[in-house]
């Protein structure tokens, strides 16, 4: 019996002595995305009845140190109809990382470069402030087009375009909450420098009521 105990103890000692430690290495990898540069800029104005040929873009792959010309993957510009349209670009680099870019095209004959309705507006029904920013003649972004209070999911740039001084449109655009457009848009200028914007938001997350925003 004593011999058996000694044998088992010897096995345990041998096993413990021959166990090897394992080294664990960790590495943080930073994704490198292709850089898309649009030829002609991100915002373009085209007269109604004119023609539009997109200039394309380039994609820079820093991993391979190469620049490639790319064409739009989609283009819904209709030069015969006033509105805001989008031209979409997509690129993939040698690591498989992807980037997207959008050019906005305003089809309009409005050419009053001095006109500017940008500023901070307040939605009358809930006091939510939204920012309207001019990006080109007659072309603006609204950062919270629905005037939704307390929900960052509804904060994203939506483009509106003016066809003349008193007519603007919000044609359908892809957004983080799905396709979105404006119905019955109205602008009221005055009294003084005051501006009022009214419209119905067409999107699955909104009702059918008219939303009113005022800039003092």
From TrEMBL:
Alphabetized Pfam families for the sequence: Bact_surface_Ig-like
PROSITE patterns assigned: PROKAR_LIPOPROTEIN (PS51257)
Gene3D superfamilies in alphabetical order: Immunoglobulins
Domain Pesticidal crystal protein Cry22Aa Ig-like: 36-107
Protein's UniProt name: DUF5011 domain-containing protein
């Amino acid at each position: 019996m004593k011999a058996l105990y000694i044998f088992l103890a010897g096995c345990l000692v041998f096993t413990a002595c021959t166990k090897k430690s394992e080294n664990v290495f960790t590495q943080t990898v930073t994704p490198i995305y292709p850089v898309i540069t649009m030829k002609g800029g991100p915002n373009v104005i085209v007269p109604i009845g004119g023609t539009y040929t997109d200039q394309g873009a380039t994609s820079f792959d820093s991993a391979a140190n190469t620049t490639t010309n790319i064409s739009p993957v989609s283009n819904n510009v209709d030069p015969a109809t006033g509105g805001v349209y989008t031209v979409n670009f997509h690129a993939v680099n040698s690591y498989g990382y992807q980037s997207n870019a959008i050019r906005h095209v305003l089809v309009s004959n409005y050419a009053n470069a001095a006109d500017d309705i940008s500023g901070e507006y307040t939605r009358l029904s809930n006091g939510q402030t939204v920012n309207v920013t001019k990006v080109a003649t007659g072309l603006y972004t609204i950062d919270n087009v629905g005037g939704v209070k307390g929900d960052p999911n509804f904060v994203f740039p939506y483009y509106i375009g003016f066809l003349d001084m008193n007519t603007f449109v919000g044609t359908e655009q892809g957004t983080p909450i799905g396709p979105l457009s404006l119905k019955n848009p109205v602008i009221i200028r005055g009294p003084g420098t005051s501006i009022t914007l009214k419209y119905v938001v067409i999107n699955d997350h909104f009702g059918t009521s008219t939303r009113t925003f005022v800039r003092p």
